[in-house]
Amino acid sequence: MDPASPSALWTARAERLRADDPVPVVMADPDIAPRGTVLLVHGRNGAPDQLQIAVIAEAYLARGWRVVAPELPHSIALPASGPAERLTMNGLRRAAAEVMGWTRARWPEAPLALAGHSLGGFAIGHLGAEIGTAHHLLAASPVLSGPRLLAARVAMGPPAVAALEREVPLLRAEMEAEDAAPALARVSCPLGVITGAEDGIVPLSDARAYFNAAPDGRFFGALPGQNHCPSGPDVAAMLDVALAALGA
């Protein structure tokens, strides 16, 4: 893949999963018969074309997995997805759950893995508990809870908190009550976590807490010099090791 053109990954598109509120999905198939399907969930202001998502997709494709990546609501990176200020943690999780249901119905016999970045990690933590039969979970820079996400903003200083309240007021209002840890405790499949050692949004201790919340953690890796959106050759190499550890 040309690093400047991650859109070259996506070879198919299913525009409408709901008649009343479309959730576009992009898909990519490996060169061989797929070993399974991975639902790849972006975070706040994310999109499948962003480098931190594309590097995960490439890692799965290289191992023979089909990739399904939704364009979830209320992302600045997706102008047709609706107002960014309406984003909520629960809303993103529910939209991802609908895409998971669609994916399972379309390929009912295929093993299903869940991967997510940032708030996408929060979403797959819940989905992994709901599905009961996931092949594995892979989380990149994952948000464990609203209180931890808020604490990281507080550590950045008052302007960072003010920006959060201004840009996503509904998300800020729900933060104190949102926690994926109880759901992760019910996840029975293997879990892997990768993160940037310099991440200020999900500090290393928070990524480690996410990993420790699940009973079957198999791989944890933090790369020096990487921040909240890890990408590049070193990340690709770490993903290959992570997926091997997860049996992908």
From TrEMBL:
Lineage in the entry?
Bacteria, Pseudomonadati, Pseudomonadota, Alphaproteobacteria, Rhodobacterales
Q: What is this protein called?
A: Alpha/beta hydrolase
Q: Which InterPro entries match?
A: AB_hydrolase_fold
Species, as recorded: Rhodovulum sulfidophilum (Rhodobacter sulfidophilus)
